[in-house]
Amino acid sequence: MKDAIVNWIKHFYDHQDQYGHAYFNQASYDAHAVYWATGMTVLLIFSSVLMWYFSKSVMLRVLHMGVDRSKVTWDDHLLRNKVFRSLAQLVPLMFLEYFLSIAFYRYPTMEGYWSRIVLVLIIFSILVSINRTANALRDIVQEKELYKDKPIQSYFQVVKIISSGILIILMLSIVTNRTPVFFLTSLGAMTAILVLVFKDTILGFVGSVQMATNDLIRIGDWITMDKFGADGIVTEINLATVKVQNFDKTITTIPTYSFISDSFKNWRGMQESDGRRIKRAVSIQIDSIGFASTALIEKLRNIRILRNFIEERQQEIAAYNQTHGFSPDDDPINARRQTNIGLFRRYIEYYLHHNPQINHDMIAMVRQLSPSETGIPLEVYCFTKTKVWDEYEVVMADIFDHIFAIAHYFELRIFENPTGNDFKRLAARDPGHRV
């Protein structure tokens, strides 16, 4: 086409002399070359703008109508990520690059200069199109149930980094008029610097691969990482960071590789299990622990869930004492007797077994821990049926509300540090001391 247009321009300068001989007016042709170049450049720019407007207004509108009417969903992701818009930018740029050699047919130096600029713009548009296509593919893949909670974004970020690096090298090659091998060789010499600069990216990629391979975390997992103050739901996993929305609605960003190098807690096992664990202790004051008196035992018989246990245990103790000749009144040391804390522990166990909010298919027990300066801890260890946080807290609070309220019924006292009221009561008993 270039030769055809140039020949068409030249035919305006073909003349015949008075003898009928044809000749080409080179002087006029050279003198008018700048006007032809200017005119064709203006026409080329106008045509490119017209084509850009057509591709943006007409072609994209037609594509949008087709996407809206289609039943598939993958084209919606392409539309939402503006893939078609970036591809539409290539049409006028490629048109402009093709006809530049015609507009500047007499000025190869100028044509080479503008051609490099347009090529750089074309490559940049291709780079934007690739990145947007990668984002669309990421959304399409994450729409699948199998990959919804996987760190897919990290892999697409690696693809975008590699493609961006290659295309940037091509742009530098065009601008500097050097081969891409020159820049690749330079990058090889700068390997140490590149490794230092992209250390977090490399570590993040390695961490993403290991997390996906070992299934350490998924999007939607509840994690706790004290080092970074994170306690919430994983909302995003990318190449550099993992975003966690804490339960106070703040956002914590954690380096991806930290999930490989540091310790964290993933609550997914609890969420996928049949219940959520309660593991909390109540400290009993040691000086309130003692053998259960006859009056206390008779009083505790009125507790329905404890009645059968008391009767069976009393028969067992009476048979043992009778066999060995012990009397609880005359030989209180050697004779077997029930303790108030033992009865309290049994009561809590029966209370848990009769609680409809506790999962009875999982372990449920009340155990006595090692005594300390705060008394003897009685630990409740069981699992609730519900795993919803607020419902779980209500169930646990109800259990311990009941334990705190009924402890005095067993003649036991819950430990607590002395308060100002305690010192006031002591002062009231001994008026000689001032508080």
Which parts are unreliable, with pLDDT below 50 for 5 consecutive residues or more? none
Count up the helices: 16
| Terminus-to-terminus distance | 107 Å
- Report the radius of gyration as a whole number of Å: 42 Å
Strand and helix order: HEEHHHHHHHHEEEEHEHEHHHEEHH
Main-sheet strand order equals 6-5-4-3-7
Q: Give the mean pLDDT.
A: 80
Query: How helical, in percent, are the residues?
Result: 55-70%
Strand percentage: 5-15%
Structural class: alpha+beta
- Number of DSSP E strands: 10
The overall number of domains is 3
Overall morphology: rod-shaped
Q: The biggest beta sheet, please?
A: 5 strands, antiparallel
Task: Explain what you see.
The protein is built from 16 helices and ten strands. With 435 residues, the chain is an alpha+beta fold. The protein has three domains: 206 residues, no CATH class; 60 residues, SH3 type barrels (Roll); 147 residues, no CATH class. A five-stranded antiparallel beta sheet has the order 6-5-4-3-7. It has a three-stranded antiparallel beta sheet with strand order 8-10-9, with helices on one face. Strands 1-2 form a two-stranded antiparallel sheet. Strand 3 and strand 4 form a beta hairpin. The longest helix is centred in the first third of the chain and has 44 residues. The protein starts with a helix and ends in a 6-residue tail after the last helix. The model has no long low-confidence stretch (mean pLDDT 80).
Notable features of this structure?
435 residues; alpha+beta; SH3 type barrels; 10 strands; rod-shaped
Topology record:
Elements: H1 2-10, E1 14-16, E2 22-24, H2 26-69, H3 74-80, H4 83-103, H5 108-142, H6 152-176, H7 180-189, H8 191-197, H9 199-214, E3 222-225, E4 230-237, E5 241-246, E6 251-255, H10 258-261, E7 265-266, H11 268-272, E8 276-284, H12 294-300, H13 304-324, H14 340-353, E9 365-368, E10 376-384, H15 389-406, H16 420-429
Antiparallel strand pairs: 1-2, 3-4, 3-7, 4-5, 5-6, 8-10, 9-10
Helix pairs in contact: 2-4, 3-5, 4-5, 5-6, 6-7, 13-14
